[in-house]
Amino acid sequence: MSQLSKGALSYKFARSFLNIGMPGYLIFFVTSRCNANCRICFNKENVRNSSLRKELSLEEIEKISRGIKNLFQLQISGGEPFLRADLAEIVTFFYKNSGVAHVTIPTNGLMPEQSEKALRKIFESCPGLYVSVNVSIDGIGKRHDEIRGVIGNFDIAAETYRRLSPLRKYHKNFALNIDTRISKHNYHELEEIADFIEEKFAPDIHIVSPARPVLDGASREIAKEEAVGVYKRLREGNVSRVKKRVYFSKAAYALISLIYDIQRRVIEDGKMAIPCPAASKMIVISDIGEVFPCEPIWLGDGGCRLGREEGGIMGDLRREGYNMRRIVNSQRSRKMRSDIKKSKCFCDFGCAVYAGILYSPRAYFGILKKFFEVLR
To answer: Is the pTM of this model over 0.70?
Structure first.
């Protein structure tokens, strides 16, 4: 896999930034099918009804990718992404047709062989693409199995990590991460989990954040005060550790620290800390082709001020001939962007905070400040 230069990455971002009227950060739910039964799943309703949902075909996805240009970041989601046998082809379409620079794939780690096979295909078809895989580990041993609802999940996820880890040696633009979601089931073990992950796995980065709200009465999973405490500990660097690799450098650590700080402020102050990029530079495509401003509006997360009755769906790609520009520039979408801006919609949704930083020049000073803090 050829290495994409920092200059080329900056050029791709600049093109994305200047691509007025089109998203630069795309969250794509490639499937609602899942082979786990997570207690903290924020997409549980769609996962439960996955057999009734007609997910987009590979041919449809190719059409969608051709209608999105200068895309910077593609965040794959689900369900379990690796349940799609054509995942490598999906990524390749966005690489070749949309010019995407960075793709992130989360996984529950229950498919070691399929994961490795798909990644090898991606590396072969997409030279220069930055690829991040986030393996979910929410606890040590049986604790993780209990949270994920699958006996033996921890051991299989560890096997997946060990299987994928050697690929980093040959593909310098590949980052293998561990993703831990903090909830009422494990927040009291945060330091223990972090130390274990660093000692046993040593990922490029250990991503840690409070679990998203779920729809079965579990609310935010941990109280506001506890969430604030988690973000403060993360900001102080007790959990996230970044290796000196091509992409995940000190600058990346500075960005992550800023994200944690903004998330903490949103929860603590109960107001917007950065302009929301939803419906403009960040959008979501569901597994059945519906387009939404963000996940909280789509899935009804309790922390979002703009509910479905006020925002909701931007459009349906199947009905609009797979034309993303038509949906993004529609009167409905323009009104949605206006409503989001006027209401000063806020939440601590990590992807929205990250995209907000990327596409808000006023946040760049904060990144620079964090960078110099890291250098100390």
So the answer is: yes
